[in-house]
């Protein structure tokens, strides 16, 4: 079973552009990637363009769209795909995911996406973006493949917007991405009824 981590180094995390500069977003995205790689032994980064920071890591350059990148590898062998912004996952979660039975195993995101995907079928193909979890469920059903949903709170949190940053700051102490956010002034304000993300 090969594990792939898709990674986009150019203009990442655009939804955070109101609160972080492009330079900060690039560094933050890289720290998120390192957090994920620490949880995935022998994972291969699939990057859309060359990046000097990937030196020393296992990586492949593939500038095609995400569906083509993922599906082309599914057609060759049993493969797992873990998004590069799942900062809160750990080795135990990844092992549990990889050990789950099924032709297709999906760890859904809390907003309807597909955060981790495993395929043991050469027939399966992907359709990411815009509610991809339900789309992938329907594809597996249409193909007559057995499907398992991997239920994990930490795996459900992909870091895209400010609400996700709050979750990272609440649960991610010790992670590289958490430490980077702290270093550029982000913190959680507990002075009101609900915690809020703030920047000094």
Structure commentary:
By secondary structure, the protein is of the alpha/beta class. It has one domain (2-156): Alpha-Beta Complex (Spore Coat Polysaccharide Biosynthesis Protein SpsA, Chain A). The protein has helices at 22-39, 66-74, 91-98, 132-142, 153-156, 162-171, 176-183; strands at residues 2-7, 44-47, 59-61, 79-82, 104-108, 114-119, 147-149, 186-189, 196-199. A 7-stranded mixed beta sheet has the order 3-2-1-4-6-5-7, with helices on both faces. The protein has a two-stranded antiparallel sheet with strand order 8-9. The radius of gyration is 17 Å and the shape is globular.
Short characterization:
The chain is of the alpha/beta class and 200 residues long.
Question: What are the main properties of this structure?
Answer:
single chain; 200 residues; alpha/beta; Spore Coat Polysaccharide Biosynthesis Protein SpsA, Chain A; two-stranded antiparallel ribbon; 7 helices; 9 strands; 34% helix
